[in-house]
Amino acid sequence: MGQQTDLCRGGPVQRKSLNQMSQPEIDAFVAAVKAVSNDPANRWGEYAKLHAEVYQGVHVNPKFLPWHRIFVRKMEQFLQEKNPSVTIPYWDWAQYSQNPENDPIFTDRIAGGDGNPGNNDCISNGQFADLKVDYTHEQNSNARCIKRRMTKKDANGLVWTSSDTIDNMLNSASFKDFAESIEQGSHGIIHNCIGSEFAGHASPNDPIFYLHHGFIDKIWYDWQKRNP
C-alpha cells in the first residue's frame, strides 16, 4: 500500500457523520459495500486478509494512524468505483456512549445488532446480515458471516468513549501522546466492546470497521488542525 500514488484521485472528499445521513444516502453506501463484496476481484475479503497479515506491523507504533488513513481511503475508492457519489461516513460512537445499544447504527436500517452466540456470533439483522464474507482469521471456524458479541465494557472494565474523553485526547501536546491515547484507548475499546471477530485481526470484514476508523481519522484531523 505504501507505493500507491492515487489516493487523492478525484480531489478531496467530504465525509458525513452517519447520524446526519439520509436513508437514501445510507442505502447507497450499503449497496456500494455489497457491490465490492460481491465483485470477483474480492477486494473486501482481500482487505480483511491484508489487515490481518500486517496487523503486528501497523498497530502499537507510529504507523497506526497514517496506515489506517490510507487503508480506509483505498476502500473508499473501491466503493466509488461502484458509485462515485459514495463516501465512507464516520460513526461518532461518543454520542451514545452511555447507552450504545440505542445507537442507530445497530438498527435494522443500518448495520444490525449483536451476533448470536449460538450461531458462531453471526448477526441476523441489519443491511449487512447477508454480506459475503470470504476470509476469517479465527482458527477452527468455518463460519463466514459478520460476527459480533457486544458488551458495554471491555475485558479491562473500560467503557465506551465519551465526548469528554475525545476532548482530552485533542488536548494532547504531541503526536506521540495523541496517537497512543486514541489507539490504546478509544480505538481499542470500541473494537473490544463490539467483540467477537471485530476484536480480532480480520475486523474489516464488518463494514462498521470503516465507519469506526473514519471517526478515528476525523479525530486525528481535528487534532492536526489544532497542531499544524
CATH class: Mainly Alpha
Give the N-terminus to C-terminus distance in angstroms.
26 Å
Q: What sequence of helices (H) and strands (E) makes up the elements? A: HHHHHH
Shape assignment = globular
Q: How much helix is in the residues?
A: 40-55%
Mean pLDDT: 92
Task: Provide the low-confidence segments as ranges.
Answer: 1-5
How many DSSP H or I helices? 6
Could you say what the CATH topology is called?
Answer: di-copper center containing domain from catechol oxidase
Q: How would you name the oligomeric state of the polypeptide chains in this document?
A: single chain
CATH architecture descriptor name: Orthogonal Bundle
Class of secondary structure makeup: mainly alpha
**Number of discrete domains:** 1
Radius of gyration in whole Å, from Cα? 17 Å
- Proportion of residues in β-strands: under 5%
- Corresponding CATH superfamily: Di-copper center containing domain from catechol oxidase
